[in-house]
Amino acid sequence: MTAGLLALTASACSPAEPKAEAAKSQAVAPVEVEVYRIEQRQQAGVLRASGLLAYKSETPLSFGAPGMIETLLVDDGARVRVGQTLATLRRTSVGADPAESEVVRQTAQQTFDRVSRLHAAGAASQADLDNARLALERAREIVSVVAPANGVILRRDAERGQMVTAGQAILQLGEERTGIIVRAQLSSVDVAQVHVGDVTQVKIPGRDNRTGKVSQISPKMAANMGSFEVEVRLDDPKDLKSGEVAEVLIAAKPVPGQVERTAYLIPAISLIDARSDQGMVYVVDAAGKAARRSIQTEGVTDAGVVVISGLQPGEAIITRGASMVRDGDTVKFRKE
Asked: 156 and 149 in contact (C-beta within 8 Å)?
């Protein structure tokens, strides 16, 4: 009977052993994560920043009166010349009586012609001429939008037959005369090393490298960004398009007495905690284990978070999957 009881006990315990082993194996399975390999982004004498290409002047165009768009003669990407008619509109507020409206238009035209002659002779002021021109525009039944400069249509925001209000943008014009620039972001420490006129190299994916110069530095920090905008004017903007991503390398002049330092850019998703200029990330060591590490940060750019202390080139930090990891966990790279 004792032997039978032992046999029964053994048979009852045996099936549980594989389950326990499976549970144990599952508990120690590596967590699958994505990582970002640290690379040097800034070093003494050269500052790097990312930004977008844009025309220095990107002008919204609109009608000065409400009405229905009769013609819209250009589309996205069209190149236009100064004075070219781009769209026309039939006013809806000229007047209900056609005969009365015609009299108003004729009177406004005669007044404008008379004031123009007086202005040319020095007998009327510029304000008188502007007022006469405005009255004529208000009296016209058909109103036009003309190109104020040579350029390219960046965006069309309306269609033929659409009702629009006075001042509602229907087109956006990139003016060629103002040139193409890069608007990039720099931290408060780095911007102190940059001056108007500094030489830059501009790298644009899929294109040859371009050169340029710093043309303007914002005197005020961008709201909620912790960085300053720096404007770089390109020497050769040929064939470039507004909205392309660019990386700018600035030959900066270090501030006298400032300690040379190295900074890195990391994806914002890698931060598991951030307070003021401090943050926490998980670094994967040589044994494949996640180690929680404190870092010092300095602002945010379009390319990521600027880190000035706590990381070294070549180290891998966890990006996606960081929320699933605990200090000391074994991890497996999903992709690098």
From this structure: no
